[in-house]
Design brief:
Helices cover 43% and strands 15% of the residues. By secondary structure, the protein is α+β, with helices and mostly antiparallel strands. The protein has a domain at 12-34 and 147-184 and 202-308 and 328-465: Creatine Kinase, Chain A, domain 2, CATH 3.30.590. The strands form five sheets. Strands 1, 2, 3, 4, 5, 8, 13 and 14 form an eight-stranded antiparallel β-sheet that branches. It is globular.
Length: 474
């Protein structure tokens, strides 16, 4: 989805040619799975970090193109809204100090963006949903980034839906909003973790990633305030699901899975996931003269199906194929250190859960999916089931099972220096002081979004984890 397209208008013939190339490349992928033609040993870690650009008053600043040109770094790209940017971090082989390497990379790239933004009077901030966003800021004409892929995404989704997008969030407040475009997707910003895993571990890794997402959605929640209304603890989940739902009324009646979803169930092979992709109509149908083996059209299409745990088929420079997880559930922030702690926690948890692969499919998938949305809505207070069958508050289950399992997984990976990051997760969960909790407490003290953002930014600038932030000062 990050690839630009050359135009924002395509003919029926373009879609037919794209579908033909997609089918050919999918057949090539089927052959790869039949002969297990993937990397069997490499583990690598990377990330994408989305950030907000703010003016001096803490309001969104639509200056991403200027900042991008000033920074002049291929690791940075614009997002759907002109007040967002994305850092595409470097990827590193997993070794004993890889987490420190990732943290340094994240800090250096973030500082580079911040320096470029400062030239235009902007600041950079990490939010799940920026509290100072208003309905004005999701105006397509004023705030959509000027790229063909976004114009085409907007046009195609609306054509496929055949009706307006309706945002309907039931939280402490009830937020309803109707839009004739996809700009509501721009409300959310996230940390996306990329984890390349050996082929033999792919199925267990996928199931472990689903369960880890349940833990992360509560432990990392940072999106409770949407357009001045109190929504879910992690409102990004419901926003994104509704904002780019391309289904028409008949497809909804037929219970077709939306393009944004957690999963469709447990699997026996990743090929099942890639076969599912063929159920969705292409959105970006640009046909390029690239060899079939590059899987350009296959991957472009896969990037327009927004699973919270997305399977990715990659290829390195020597031409070797590999499988990797794109873990999309975690919001950005509140600080870089919180973001790194979330990354360390999720990778460790995936590795620890894989030690008991049969346990990962004991609880019916429908229960996991229901609990995932409950955790997004209620955060750590959600009543859920864990993969071992234990039931209770998510806060208690994370402390009893998820954190010890993550520590075991990190030790199995040979990660030496995990303690500091895992201590942050432990203390955040014990206290219940997530970013979402801090924002809601601040809003209860004074329902002033700009004042809230100003204090949030002040505390975030220290890079102290959110559970150590002082209360909001009125």
């Amino acid at each position: 989805m990050g690839d630009e397209v050359s135009k924002d208008k395509f003919s029926k013939a373009d879609y037919s040619r794209f579908k033909q190339r997609l089918d050919q490349e999918t057949e090539h992928v089927r052959a790869l799975f039949l002969r297990a033609g993937f990397d069997h040993s490499t583990r690598r870690l990377g990330y994408e970090l989305e950030l907000c650009l703010l003016n001096a008053r803490g309001e969104p600043s639509p200056c991403n193109q200027q900042v991008l040109e000033q920074a002049d770094n291929p690791h940075f790209t614009v997002e759907l809204a002109r007040f967002n940017l994305e850092i595409n971090g470097n990827a590193f082989a997993v070794h004993d100090t890889v987490m420190a390497q990732l943290q340094q990379d994240m800090a250096e790239l973030y500082a580079e963006v911040a320096d470029a933004a400062q030239i235009f009077g902007c600041r950079t901030g990490l939010f799940g949903v920026l509290p100072s966003l208003t309905r004005e800021h999701v105006n397509r004409q004023s705030f959509m980034s000027d790229l063909s892929r976004y114009r085409l995404l907007d046009k195609r989704v609306m054509q496929m839906r055949g009706r307006p997008v309706q945002l309907d969030i039931h939280g402490p407040d009830h937020l309803q909003l109707e839009k004739n475009d996809v700009m509501l997707e721009a409300l959310g910003t996230s940390l996306q973790i990329h984890y390349q895993i050996p082929f033999e571990e792919s199925v267990a890794s996928y199931h472990a990633a689903l369960w880890s997402s349940l833990a992360l959605i509560g432990a990392a929640a940072n999106s409770p305030l949407v357009l001045g209304a109190r929504g879910w603890q992690e409102s990004r989940i419901v926003i994104f699901k509704q904002a780019v739902d391309s289904r028409n009324p008949q497809e909804i009646h037929d219970q077709q899975t939306p393009r944004v979803h957690l999963a469709q169930g447990y699997i026996h092979s990743w090929m099942e996931l890639f076969e599912d992709n063929l159920c969705y109509s292409p959105i970006l149908p640009e046909v390029l003269d690239k060899p079939l083996e590059s899987l350009h059209h296959f991957n472009l299409h896969n990037g327009t199906i927004w699973r919270w745990v997305r399977p990715i088929l990659g290829r390195d420079e020597p031409g070797r194929y590999h499988l990797r997880l794109e873990l999309r559930v975690t919001p950005a922030g509140p600080t870089l250190i919180d973001s790194m702690a979330n990354l360390v926690f999720q990778i460790g948890l995936i590795e620890g859960l894989k030690l008991k692969p049969n346990e990962l499919t004991l609880v019916p998938y429908e229960v996991l999916e229901q609990d995932f949305y409950s955790a997004a809505r209620h955060g750590l207070s959600a009543e859920v089931s864990w993969c071992n069958g234990k039931m209770g508050r998510l806060q208690d289950l994370v402390l009893r099972f998820a954190i010890p399992t993550a520590v075991t997984g990190l030790e199995l990976l040979g990660i030496r220096d995990y303690a500091g990051w895992m201590d942050i997760v432990q203390q955040r969960v014990q206290s219940g002081r997530t970013g979402a909790r801090w924002i809601l407490d601040a809003w209860a003290s004074q329902p002033d979004a700009n004042a809230l953002v100003q204090q949030y930014m002040l505390h975030a600038s220290t890079n102290r984890p959110v559970h150590l932030w002082p209360d909001f000062e009125t």
